[in-house]
Amino acid sequence: MKIAVIGLGLIGGSIAKAIKEQTDHTVLGADIVQSVLLRAKLTEAIDDALTEANLPECETVIIALYPEAAVRWLRENAKRIAKHALVVDCCGVKKYVCDRVKDLAEEHGFVFIGGHPMAGRERSGFDFSTSEMFKKASMILTPYADTDIREIERAKKLFLSIGFGRITIRTPEEHDRIIAYTSQLAHVLSNAYIKSPTAPYHSGLSAGSFRDMTRVATLNPTMWVELFFENRDNLITEIDTLADRLTEYSRALKENDADALRRLLEDGVMMKALCDRMDGTQG
Predict the structure, then answer these.
(1) Which of 2, 42, 62, 73 has the fewest other C-beta atoms within 10 Å?
(2) Do the beta carbons of residue 100 and residue 119 sit within 8 Å?
(3) Secondary structure of the chain: what % helix, strand, coil (to 5)?
């Protein structure tokens, strides 16, 4: 079948490459940067450019844009999408997108399922995309409550075929609440952590823990500002809750309370073990 991929950055470029390398589908790509589109064609990440004329031929449309741009693209192109075509976005927030697309999908007859591939790199752009990006990764799908189960299975089959190891189904609200903790908070924390006045003097005195803590401090500010504000309430809750927990450690040190500090550390070790067991169960 023909699959349209809108946005050929890190995620969209990786999806296009994975489809081309691991399936027999035809990929039509679109990107506002013409040099990116040209590189995608020259490297055979796509078969051809997506146009207004061939968009109606696509049975599946994957939108790898920022949330506001994804909604805008759908509003501008909904009338050209084939009826019963499967449309999946790859945005990092789901309620913002799903709320704005539901009526549009019903009006024009295509099937929309929110999506979020849980994979990425510190660097963005087509040049850093790879067909191996999604190997054994989790793909979150956020279908509407009335979505036909056969359409969900259609989406699952496609994403498993390009390397995803797990398909997780959540509501848009659940996704945004949890992702504020598992992804967004981690980026805020890493970005804040690296601003310590001690950071410039770390050379020769750091190891794996420093690299782990600072890995996602290198981010795309434009994208993350949009994502943070579109999930503002959930992220504020996580930041404030983390600040409260950090204060407990600081208080134990200030009060020379070794027992309290030990309990805090032991609680963290126990919670990490619990999370690891849950990951093993769900895997």
Answers:
(1) 42
(2) no
(3) 55, 15, 30
Q: Are 142 and 170 in contact (CB under 8 A)?
A: yes
Which of 112, 119, 116, 179 lies closest to 152, judged by CA? Answer: 112
The pTM (predicted TM-score) of the whole model is 0.90
Q: Which amino acid is at 94?
A: K
For 57, the token pair is 């031929």
C-alpha span between 229 and 235 (Å, rounded): 9
The two beta strands, 48-49 and 26-30, are parallel
* pLDDT tens digits, 216-262: 898 889 999 999 999 999 999 999 999 999 999 999 999 999 999 99
* Residue in the structure block whose two tokens are 């950055």: 9
**b/e burial code for range 111-123 (CB count within 10 A of at least 16 → b):** bbbbbbbbbbbee
Do the Cβ atoms of 90 and 12 come closer than 8 Å? yes
Q: Are 98 and 74 in contact (CB under 8 A)?
A: no
The Cα–Cα gap between 246 and 17 comes to: 42
